[in-house]
Design a protein that fits this description.
By secondary structure, this protein is mostly beta strands. The chain has two helices and 13 strands. About 7% of the residues have low confidence.
Length: 236
């Protein structure tokens, strides 16, 4: 049965293909006035409930195994007054990905592969990532309910960042910033310096390749000597 007082939103890629599409959505912090369902195999599954509107909203990902995209239903909640309520959310289309799996609420962002990057992936990461920073791990916290972990990083050098996720503390203090990854990656706190790379999703940094800095230097210098580095990287 389809909900009454509902708006059907079809999210589909610009170019149709035979592969399925993964969609990730993040409700606004002030989301209210509606609930969001995703349509899967002719049935509706609740993704966001208005009852959760006052809580921080996690990112939810799900996939469609057809080129027609993903259908969402926004069902308006009954209200007794004429006050305005806004049910807004952001979304990303990740075409041709196979990482979403059957669990439609499982995080499935491309960067969180839960495995070390090989040398070529690492060299490409320093060229194309939204952020590249050298730093150490201050703390790792885990959110089992939303299947995510957060790595708090003390930053020694910012080589690149798309937005100001990594910032200096007031009064000229140290640079710090949070990086997210999947809980299933089982990230632990480790000593030493790392090169953190990754991309931004919904204004948050998501972990990509993160080798120890000394290991990265060996890989980069060897590639540079062979002329195999895809881009120049500031070593000093």
């Amino acid at each position: 049965m389809y909900p009454a007082r509902a708006l059907r939103v079809l999210l589909e890629p610009n170019v149709a293909s035979g592969q399925h599409t993964t969609v990730c959505i993040k409700p606004a912090s002030d989301f209210q006035g509606a609930s969001i369902y995703v349509e899967r195999s002719g049935q509706l599954h609740l993704v966001v409930s208005e009852a959760e509107g006052a809580r921080p909203q996690p990112v939810s990902c799900f996939s469609s195994h057809s080129p027609q995209g993903v259908a969402l239903f926004l069902q308006a909640s009954p209200q007794r007054d004429i006050s305005r309520r806004t049910a807004s959310f952001q979304y990303k289309l990740l075409g041709n990905q196979s990482t979403a799996g059957p669990d439609f609420k499982k995080m499935a962002l491309v960067e969180a592969m839960c495995r070390p990057c090989d040398n070529m992936e690492l060299l490409m990461a320093i060229c194309s990532s939204d952020f590249v920073v050298k730093g150490s791990i201050r703390n790792v916290s885990h959110d089992s309910e939303n299947h995510m972990s957060q790595v708090d990083v003390s930053v020694q050098k910012v080589y690149r960042q798309k937005n100001r996720i990594f910032q200096q503390e007031e009064g000229g203090g140290e640079w710090r910033g949070p990086i997210r990854t999947l809980l299933q990656c089982k990230v632990k706190k480790g000593g030493g310096d790392f090169l953190f790379t990754g991309n931004e999703h919904f204004g948050e940094a998501w972990l990509g390749c993160a080798p120890r800095f000394k290991d990265f230097m060996l890989v980069y210098q060897a590639a540079r000597e062979r002329g195999a580095n895809p881009c120049e990287f500031e070593l000093n």
